[in-house]
Each structure stands twice: as C-alpha cells, then as structure tokens.
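General statements about sequence and structure are easier to judge against a single worked case. Part of our work consisted of pairing the sequence of a single chain with a tokenised description of its backbone. The amino acid sequence and the backbone structure tokens for this protein are reproduced below.

***
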Amino acid sequence: MCHRFLLLALVALLGGCSNLGYYLDSASGHLDLMAERQPIQKLLLGDSLSPERRRQLEQAQRARDFASSELLLPNNDSYRSFVDLEQPYAVWNVIAAPRYSVEAKQWCFVFTGCISYRGYFAKEDAEHYANKMRKQDLDVFVSGARAYSTLGWFKDPLLNTMLYRSEARLVGIIFHELAHQELYVKGDSAFNEAFATAVEREGVRRWFAQQDDTDSYRAYLDSSERDQAFKLMLIDTREQLAQLYESDASDAQKAAGKQDIFARLQREYQVFKRSWENYDGFDEWMAQNLNNAHLALIATYHEYVPAFEQLLHAGGGDMHAFYDAARAIGKLDTEARRERMDTLLAQRRREALAVHRKRDPGAQGTVSVQKTARAERSKGTS
C-alpha cells in the first residue's frame, strides 16, 4: 500500500490535469499486476503446472539466461516471475488517425515522451476512450498487445500472453522486451521498435544456431517471410491512401477512393492467401472494418529494422559494439538521428541489391531497386 501511494503521489506531481486520471489508472493497473507475481523457479519446483505450461516456462527461463549471456541484454529480475492474467492480451492500445490521413495521432506522457497509441489495462476502458475519439471524427483501432515494458523501472513479470506455442515467438518476445530496457529514446517509437525487433531477430538466429536446429530456424524464416509479405501489402495500401489524401480531390472523392482502396486490399489478400497455401492466420485481422488507424503504425514500426541490421553487420556482429553504436545514434537530435538511420538503410538496400544481382545478373533498372527497397523496408516484423 505504501508503494502504491508513493507512486500515485509521484504521478500526481508529474502529470498535468488532462492526464492525471489516466496516470492513476495506469499506475493502479500495473501495481495490481505486480502484486500477482510468482517466482518462476518456485512454480517449477511445485506440481501445480500443466505439462505444457511447465515446458513453456522452462523454455522462457532458458531464453532469459541466453538473453543476458549471449545477447548481453540487462541481467536483472525481469521475466523471472510469472503472472497468469487469464485473458488473451496484457494491454489494449487505442490508435487513432484523421479520416483523410494515415498519420497516427500522438499522445505525450512524462516518462515515454510522445507515442502513437494510448494503452489501457482494461479493454472496456480502451473501448470507452476509443468511442470518444470516434466522436471527434477520427478513424480508430483498438489493438490487443501481448506484452508491455516498464523499461527496467520495475521487475517486469512474464505473462501468460507472452507464452506463444512457437518456440521462436516465445523466445523472441523476451529478447524484444529486454531490448527496450537496453535502449529507449524518449519520443521516437520508430527508432525504439526497430531496434528491439532487430535484436529479437538476431537473438532468434543465435538461439537456433546454438542448438544447431536448422529446421526450426528455417521454419521461423518462412514464417517471417510470410509476415513480411503481408505487411508489405499493407504498406502498399497505406501508400496508396497517402497519395489519395495528399491529392486535390474533394472530400467526397477521397471517401469514395478510400473505400475502393480498402476493397482492393481485400481482393489482394485473397491472392496472398493462395500464394501461401491458403494460410488463414491473418483472416481475423482482415475481417475487421479496416480504416486508416489499422495501417497508421505499419510502416513506422518496421522501417528502420534493416538499418539496425546494417549497424550490427558493420560491427562484425559484436553486441557490445552494436549497442554502443545504436546508443550514440539515439543521442543525436531527431533530424540528425533520422539522417543517420536513412544512410544505414540506403547502405543495406545497396548490399541487398548487389546480392540480388549476383543471383540474377539480368536484373536491372528502377523496378528492381524499388522492389528490393520495399522488401527491405518491411523487413523485421515483431
């Protein structure tokens, strides 16, 4: 109770009036969650776990050790305890965008800076706030998130929502969340998410390499390739919408064009499914009443993953050197940071194009360059 009171008093001092209620609810939700933590080692010594849950927790703890020993990520008590939320998501994020824009609305907070979503521990609270946004004539999307990070301020627990059946996904999410503790630049979601995703991808690669499990890693790459292809389709749609909204068309024409573009996306998705042997993993997402908010973060969160992979490659795969280099970029002002990331991205694209041309000497021209650039831009989904 003392810890709760002190934290609430702190946010009362730090938060403005408009955000005070939100801060209080967030602090209360987080502390309620923290109170439910159980040490994983204690759970593993008992007999209350199902065989599947025991396997997942054992695997998660091996991944947690691996994260610090092999990826040099923070060695602390995060993800050493467990909470079963008995629900599919840890938090629900509200994302909003203007009716004729694909740029997400920004919310600014004391600790995180400005971000493109607003998170809630309770789904009904997220839906209530989403309805307020809809009344402002905004496109809105409420998205469940499996994990969240306090950036090392607290000993974050492992949640049941993070326990994917896929080994690659389970270990990857631990690497991803710990990466946020290693480096976080206030107010730059694109930088932060791309960095964490690059660490995740490298971590999964090393995880399977250590086990000499090429089959599992190949399956992970196949899954990643499918995810990237899907997101590239969404990025294409986002770009079409952006061109429409930036045109001189009337609002009525933009409304009709917007409807046509989303209808085209649905048709393209059916082609996409056939190309992946009718894989239906995206069906539920595509069945929503899609709008600008669904696409607002697609490009932003993955654009710079290849740039970080280039930075890791330039350092010979040394994680210490990689973190130092990334941290140095993070200290730059916003414009200089973007310029540096764009330079790394261009280098990565040139190298990818060179490899592509070696495989296919006849590939020339702008089309090849654009395809390679777009594929690289979409690389690294989390």
